[in-house]
Amino acid sequence: MQDIGYRRPEAGCGMCAIGDAGLLIHDTEYKIQDSKDNVASTVINLHRTSCILHPVSCIPYPFSPGNSAVASASSIFYAARPMHMKVYIDGKFCDQQDAKVSVFDHGLLYGDGIFEGIRAYHGRVFKLKEHIDRLFYSAKAILLDIPMSHAEMMKAVVETCRQNGLRDAYIRLVVTRGVGTLGLNPNRCKNPSVIIIADKIQLYPAEYYEQGMAIVTVPTARNLHNAVNPAIKSLNYLNNILAKLEANIAGVEEAIMLNAEGFVAECTGDNIFIVRNGQMFTPPLSAGTLYGITRGVVLEMAREAGIPASEPNLTRYDLFIADECFLTGTGAELIPVTKIDGRQIGTGKPGPITRTLVQRYRALTEVSGEPI
Ligand SMILES: Cc1ncc(COP(=O)(O)O)c(C=O)c1O
Fold this sequence. Notes:
CATH topology of the largest domain: D-amino Acid Aminotransferase, Chain A, domain 2
Helix content: 25-40%
Largest sheet: 9 strands, mixed
Order of helices and strands: EEEHEEEHEEHHEEHEHEEEEHEHEEEHE
Shape: globular
Strand content: 15-25%
Number of strands: 20
Bound molecules: pyridoxal-5'-phosphate
Low-confidence stretches: 33-42, 52-83
Number of domains: 3
């Protein structure tokens, strides 16, 4: 949260704050323009929809229910983020409200482009080189010439964090094919666009990290290698979005995607691991998994911790009879899974190997990365 004269309530989620002119609710600013009507309940509802961790409002006096201060509902306007957020676009930093791309950009018209999701912890960008390497590999696979070197891209990411005063951040790095015509031929797009947004993200409620979460297998299969190869982190995520929708319909937050042969590939935004009899398994890259950076870190940590790990093809049956299961991703980090397709996994609680790896991952993020 930016320091613009707001103060946080002593109790609460830590992401809401109160000021004379308005509120910050999960980094979204609500201005108070009229002090006549009581809209406490509106404000509280705003908080509830933003705050998955604290379903009860954490904004106290004068915005608590029954208090007569504050403004009319119509006078609270939405400003997506404190206004001094800076977005990097093609070498320049723009204010959030000016951070726009053309409607003729093929990233928008066709999903023609690539991206990375990166995290910074404690003033360091975690595994930055690995993310930039993967970005350049994705670019190579779709014949997209990124108009910057690796080193320039790394500098731009770090600088975007600095410009936004962020030491802990989720960074979205996007390279689009650029502006072209309405036809799909990428040869008409002469200048790819590079966009870097540094913000915060919380993918899943905190209790899932403590207790584990339930996931399901969905009908939408992972892309074929000879279609949009799953190793390309492209802007075309509709395949994964369909799977995510199917998970949502089933009442859970994440989906297991199988490949065309019926082997487990990965989840919509995470790689998947199981543990059985003290050994760790994750699907091979040939099963249609993304070359996950967190997946690589976990395999390395397992080696260091003396946990045997291998990458065989896995079926749903292998998942059902696992002792432990967890997902990995930059956004999700390491999250335990305790139910798959209605089957309890292991004891139904996050297992010891999962917990060990979570601790090791946290420790690593505290000390390693590119300084901001
Ligand atoms: C489809 C998919 N699988 C796996 C992952 C996890 O990869 P990483 O650990 O590099 O974030 C992601 C996230 O980037 C993803 O989008």
